[in-house]
Amino acid sequence: MPATKVVVNVPGEDAYDVRIGAGILDSLGAHLRRVPALERTERALVVTDANVAPLYRDAAKASLAEGGFRASDVVVCAGEDAKSVAVAAEIWDAMAQLSLGRDCVVVALGGGVVGDLAGFVASAYMRGVPVVQVPTTLLSMVDSSVGGKTGVNLEAGKNLVGAFKQPAYVCADTATLATLDEREWACGCAEIAKASVIDSDEFFFWLVDAADALAARDEAVVSEAIARSVVFKADVVAADKTESKGVRECLNYGHTLGHAVEALAGYGTFSHGAAVAEGMRFAARLGAALVDTPLDLVEAQDALLDALGLPALSWSAEPEAMLAAMKRDKKARRGQVRFVLPRDVGDWQLVDVDDDTLLSHVDAWAR
Ligand code: NAD
Ligand code: MG
To answer: What does the record give as EC number (predicted)?
Structure first.
């Protein structure tokens, strides 16, 4: 199975390759050597977490060595807690201890947590050194490793400190997904489904046909789903690099209600993917009421999410509490909750929904 390459071209930034394929971690070092920004780079710092380190760190470091990089590593705790200013500072200290200069490269080996953390670390160390993303979760391959958003969390909220930092290269080795559990797998599937609804008929109906094979982790289908999602995300990011034009907000489809579900159920009760899938089901129904979303879409999306292992949740909260949680989300505007609604597959609209309308729909959802 040959590797696929997607080129990401963000205006004002160096173009970068996203390579997707099984076993390509072995050629990471050789490929990095050919990235113009890394031609003379001698040292690499692999940032990874405690789950991923025993699985893939040695392979990554061996491959970097073959490319002529002297590689060190830092292992952080697994999970969202690693996305903190304190952990970022520990990595900066480790880099200084290792005497890493501006001519080093940071290699983020792990899921979105490691990618966001290491990308942020790279964005600020010595005013910026290159970062390479080596995503090892389906979610990070299809979503977080591309687009350049990096950052850490504060007590006050998620991702409150960060930087836009495009990677120099992305290596998505689908063989690393073999060790990913079902819950994390489904998280990636939810973001793929989200991308397909927002993107086009072509992507959506391909995914509808491919859903069973994707759920069964068929290698060719997995790679194609990742490639299609990366192309979609790259196009959105190219159109709205710093999330200032309203285009990038489409990536929030399903996340408005989804974030409220995650928060009110208690973080970790439902996976991010399960919550986003629920949010997509809700947003499509809200769309049917507000922007004439066809019922065919609502039903086809339900079936797609079912097939991907993302069933409707048998959980609900008080509608008033849901409304309050959605208003606390940073995407609320002028007191109204803003939704990405699909007018049709490949055609979306931002809609500020007033409290009474939203309450009546959340009430129907909660029954
Ligand atoms: P994660 O990084 O926490 O990984 C999930 C779990 O899987 C962790 O326990 C991790 O150790 C483990 N893991 C990783 N790779 C594995 C493998 N190959 N085999 C076995 N276990 C493995 O979570 P995630 O879902 O990848 O990413 C979530 C993070 O991404 C959140 O912090 C979110 O804010 C961020 N995010 C960022 C963007 C962006 O644009 N920057 C977009 C979406 C999400
Ligand atoms: Mg998400």
So the answer is: 4.2.3.4
Active site residue 272: yes
Distance (Å, rounded) from C-alpha 7 to C-alpha 176?
A: 22
**pTM surpassing 0.95?**
yes
Q: What is the pLDDT of residue 259?
A: 96
Task: For residue 246, count CB atoms less than 10 angstroms from its CB and return exposed for 0-12, middle for 13-18, buried for 19 or more.
Answer: exposed
Q: Which uninterrupted H or E stretch holds 290? A: helix 272-290
Select from 147, 151, 133 the least CA-distant residue to 13: 147
Q: Output the CA–CA distances (angstroms, integers) from residue 261 to 76, 274, 366, in the order listed.
A: 28, 9, 11
Based on the residue annotation, tell me whether 241 is a catalytic residue of this protein.
no
Distance 276 CA to ligand 2 centre (A): 7
Spatial contact of 284 and 259, defined as CB atoms under 8 Å apart = no
Please indicate whether residue 233 is annotated as part of the active site.
yes
Whether this model's ipTM surpasses 0.95 comes out as yes
Q: How far apart are CA 189 and CA 206, in angstroms?
A: 14
Mutate to test the pocket of ligand 1, among 56, 144, 179, 248 (most ligand atoms within 8 A of CB): 144
Given the residues 19, 31, 57, 149, the one annotated as active site:
149
Question: What pLDDT shows up at residue 333?
Answer: 67
Secondary structure (H, E, C), 175-220:
HHHHHCCHHHHHHHHHHHHHHHHHHCHHHHHHHHHHHHHHHCCCHH
Q: What residues flank ligand 1, with Cβ below 6 Å?
A: 49, 51-52, 55, 78-80, 83, 110-114, 116, 136-137, 139-140, 143-144, 147, 149, 159, 176, 179-180, 184, 187
